[in-house]
Amino acid sequence: MAVPVSGPIEKFGFDTVFEATGEVRFATPRPKRTFTAEEVEQIRRAAEAAGEARAMASIANHQAHALEVIGRAAQQALPSLAGVAHEHRVGSAELALACGRAIAGAALDKFPEAPVRAALEALAREIEAAPRLIVTADAGLTQGLQVVLDETAQAVGYPGAIQVRPQAGFAPHAFTLDFGDGSASFDPAAAAERVAQVLHAALAAEGLHAEPLIPGGGTPAPDTQEP
User: Where are any strands of DSSP class E within the chain?
Assistant: First the structure.
């Protein structure tokens, strides 16, 4: 049974063809098996260049993969880093408040009459027509306060009478000024608490949307809300 053949049939060839006399008519060139020193050097350089090219391509692939991994890790770490930065801001604010309280307390102990003097100077326009000003404070603050207030009243041009009355129940360095048509009060502890509340409210509103962790890094702008 004949087997169909597809495509042209290639003739069988010989590597070496001889004449009838035995002489070689044709011989297929054989691969060169010996090389000169110059050829060996060229082959060596070519092999080194090819190896170096393959190594650099592999290094570039590893670098690209490493950068991709680093980028993903950084993206995952940014929320945690923002939380840490916010906690640091809160801690710094708490430390500043504590230092402010300590400094204010020392200043009040050193100059206890200074807040009353400043209040009288600030209210000079409002109390100028009042015939009498009553200052109420704890007994520790009222000692020696009458002379200081009389001097301050004379300096600001207040013509009315000033009466200093000690009263129990006032916090240290706290006082009240009563001038008939109105009054003003000062409590260092309450003032410090109001400052702390305002600061904490600002930090809470800021939340994790503070200034960028990386300045100029193209991070999204903080969310804004209409007042």
Answer: 16-18, 24-27, 132-137, 161-166, 175-178, 183-186
Task: Round to whole Å and give the CA distance between 186 and 115.
Answer: 8
Q: How far apart are CA 83 and CA 60, in angstroms?
A: 35
pTM (two decimals)? 0.52
Distance CA 22, CA 17 (A): 9
Whole-angstrom CA distances from 92 to 61, 105, 215 are 44, 20, 20
Question: Hey, what are 41's tokens?
Answer: 């050097």
pLDDT confidence tier of residue 5, bands split at 50, 70 and 90: low
Instruction: Select from 161, 197, 177, 167 the least CA-distant residue to 115.
Output: 177
Strands 24-27 and 161-166: unpaired
pLDDT tens-place string over residues 82-105? 778 888 888 888 999 899 889 988
Q: Which of 65, 159, 175, 165 is nearest to 113 (CA)?
A: 175
- Return d(Cα 221, Cα 210) in angstroms, integer: 9
